[in-house]
């Protein structure tokens, strides 16, 4: 599925999403000096402020996005990992301090999602693109309901 289909599905499930405006997205790009991939920009425009319950408890929304790379670097340091971020790597997700995910901003369409789990030596591609990442969360929620 494409990102638009996934977000439409989230809305049809009744979640009240809150997105970012262009100025807020530009703030992120300016802060990290990158151009964000198109699918991630769409995610931000539709639910970059709140997922209305989707991704609850995860650090992935605007109020935390400016801290995520720092958190990820701390985890890498604690793990004695030799991995170092490149300028174009953008950390967009963290889970309770032991997982983070990032994208390569040089890939403007369907960038793979790299995951790092505490104790790993290197990040690995876990999802082929952002829509797959979100689709997994929908499946988890539907399994609970």
Automatic annotation (TrEMBL):
Query: Which domain of life does the UniProt lineage start with?
Result: Bacteria
SMART domains annotated for this entry? SMI1_KNR4
Q: May I ask which residue range the UniProt record assigns to the signal sequence?
A: none
Annotated Knr4/Smi1-like domain ranges read: 19-140
Designated name of the protein: SMI1-KNR4 cell-wall
The species this protein was found in:
Flavobacterium terrae
């Amino acid at each position: 599925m494409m990102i638009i289909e996934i977000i439409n599905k989230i809305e049809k499930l009744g979640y009240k999403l809150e997105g970012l405006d262009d100025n807020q997205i530009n703030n992120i790009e300016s802060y990290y000096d990158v151009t964000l991939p198109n699918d991630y920009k769409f995610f931000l425009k539709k639910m970059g402020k709140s997922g209305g319950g989707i991704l609850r408890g995860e650090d992935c929304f605007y109020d935390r996005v400016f801290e995520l790379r720092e958190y990820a670097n701390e985890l890498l340091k604690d793990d004695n990992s030799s991995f170092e971020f490149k300028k174009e790597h953008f950390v967009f997700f963290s889970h309770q301090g032991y997982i983070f995910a990032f994208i390569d901003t040089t890939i403007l369409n369907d960038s793979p999602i790299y995951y790092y789990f505490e104790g790993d030596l290197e990040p690995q591609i876990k999802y082929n693109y952002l829509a797959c990442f979100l689709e997994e969360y929908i499946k988890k929620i539907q399994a609970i309901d």
